[in-house]
Specification:
Radius of gyration: 17 Å
CATH superfamily of the largest domain: Alpha/Beta hydrolase fold, catalytic domain
Shape: globular
Number of domains: 2
Order of helices and strands: EEEEHEHEHEHHHHHEHEH
CATH topology of the largest domain: Rossmann fold
Number of strands: 9
CATH class of the largest domain: Alpha Beta
Strand content: 15-25%
Mean pLDDT: 96
Length: about 240
């Protein structure tokens, strides 16, 4: 456990040996979600943590994006005071916002930050939804999951665990609500999968063009649900 600035306890696991890399999960992720990527990194000490409100971490109210940035800063402090950071999806946007806020991040690797115009009614509907309704709204409306696939998810053994994380979808939505794209001089690689929707590639290209020190990399045949071993191999090369 590490203690964030507001006293919230943040659960952290570490694996490997070498320069520090902190892995930041996306929506409906806990530290178990990033653990396979962390374990696959070669030549690094990789840290996976439960973002606040998830897994074994606390959730001190009221929520604010700034508190999540402080959480990441606390993990980085425990990792030696500075670190490289890999972020997945909305976790990539959180990592970017942290770097722009001055958190000591030495390099960024961002997998498919989902930057596109927001649905103006999504936040209000999410705020009023039950956990199950929130999942359906996120997976169906925000992520575009077909109804038949969503129906299968509702019946899967994973659904209760996702419901336990559903309240944090509001947190991710706040992270994704941007008046302008954050910017940082930190060296950045924006990664996408070639099998992901065109808008994901457009978002990556737009972000890389916006940042002063960024490049893009595509992973063949990968989607947003990227294979952890493929991603870990790519990150090992990017972060070396």
């Amino acid at each position: 456990m590490v203690t964030s600035k507001d006293g919230t306890q943040i659960a952290v696991d570490a694996v490997g040996d070498g320069p520090s890399v902190v892995c930041v999960g996306g929506a409906l992720n806990d530290r178990g979600s990033t653990a396979p990527v962390a374990a696959g990194l070669t030549g690094f000490t990789a840290y996976s943590y439960d973002r606040r409100g998830r897994g074994d971490s606390g959730d001190t109210p009221p929520y604010a994006v700034e508190r999540e940035i402080e959480d990441l800063a606390a993990v980085i402090e425990s990792a030696g005071g500075s670190a490289m950071v890999y972020g997945m999806s909305s976790g990539a946007v959180l990592a970017l916002r942290a770097a722009a806020a001055g958190v000591p991040i030495t390099r960024l690797a961002l997998y498919e930050p989902p930057l596109r115009p927001a649905d103006p009614g999504y936040a209000s509907r999410l705020a009023q939804a039950t956990p199950s309704e929130a999942l359906e709204l996120f997976l169906g409306t925000a992520m575009g999951m077909p109804e038949e696939a969503l129906a299968g998810m509702r019946q899967s053994p994973a659904w209760p665990a996702l419901e336990a994380l559903a309240h944090t979808l509001r947190y991710d939505n706040e992270i994704m609500t941007l008046t302008e794209l954050p910017s940082t001089p930190v060296p950045t690689t924006v990664l996408t999968g070639t099998a992901s929707p065109p808008w994901m590639h457009e978002a990556a290209t737009r972000l890389a063009a916006h940042l002063p020190n960024a490049t893009t990399t595509q992973l063949p045949d990968q989607t947003h649900n990227v294979n952890p071993s493929v991603l870990a191999k790519a990150l090992t090369q990017v972060l070396a």
